[in-house]
Amino acid sequence: MKKALPFCGRQLATIAFPALALGLASCQNAPTQNGSTAATDKTAPITTNAPSTGTAAMTPRRELMLHVMQRNADQLWNWTAYSASRSGSGYASPKTDEDWMNAESDALTIVELTKLLDTDEYRIDDADWPKLVANLRAAVQESATAAENKNFEGMLAVSDKIDEQCVACHMHYVPGIEVRPK
Ligand code: HEC
Question: What is the dotted CATH code of the domain comprising 58-182?
Fold first, then answer.
């Protein structure tokens, strides 16, 4: 991932993601490298796509999966988790505007992670890799769009499909990690 603002890039790569929305907000308020556009229009996205000059080491793929992908997927799945207890039962579901915002952020974070998976740093050199990545991306994008539209049924409908894409890729390259007690 090429980032003109190394601080933002580092945040995206290493910090747990409830901070993402905040992180992006602070990125947008940060001055651009040539100090121009952001000052005039604070809402304008920073579109600079100059090659990164950052030299920070990338997190190894397994660590990225374990600490960033899994954590973030769990957060996303928590929104569609079903629970039953004496006091009642039902889906967690985003409720407040902030919840919906966070749910969309959780999904969009995984969309961005799939782009990382397509970089030389993380990809496995195999023709099926980009397809498996794209399948996950499509599923989480669907969830992000549903969250943006406050469409819980949409989020619920795609929730298992997201998991299936994780499993499909793992079964292809690292089947051992999917052998867990059911
Ligand atoms: C395109 C392929 C691909 C997709 C999609 C994918 N993974 Fe992975 N995952 C891998 C590979 C390859 C590894 C092994 C990493 C390594 O050792 O380099 C891995 C490892 C992991 C691990 C570490 C398990 C362990 O015990 O070592 C976790 C956790 C994980 N993935 C979670 C997920 C989740 C959750 C998703 C879906 C939201 C997902 N992955 C989607 C390819 C993928």
Answer: 1.20.120
For residue 66, how far is its CA from the centre of ligand 1 (angstroms)?
7
Name the residue of 121, 160, 166 to mutate for ligand 1: max ligand atoms within 8 A of Cβ. 166
pLDDT bin (cut points 50, 70, 90) of residue 30 is very low
Confidence of residue 8 (pLDDT cuts 50, 70, 90): very low
Question: pLDDT confidence of 174, banded at 50, 70, 90?
Answer: very high
Q: Where are the domains of the chain?
A: 1-57, 58-182
Ligand 1 and 81: CB distance under 6 A:
no
Q: 28: Cβ–Cβ under 8 A, 6 or more apart, which residues?
A: 38, 42, 43, 45, 46
Q: Which long-range contacts (CB under 8 A, 24 or more apart) does 78-84 make?
A: 79/103, 79/106, 79/147, 79/155, 80/152, 80/155, 80/156, 80/159
What pairs with residue 82 in β-bridges? Answer: 91
Decide which of 45 and 97 is more confident: 97
pTM above 0.85, yes or no: no
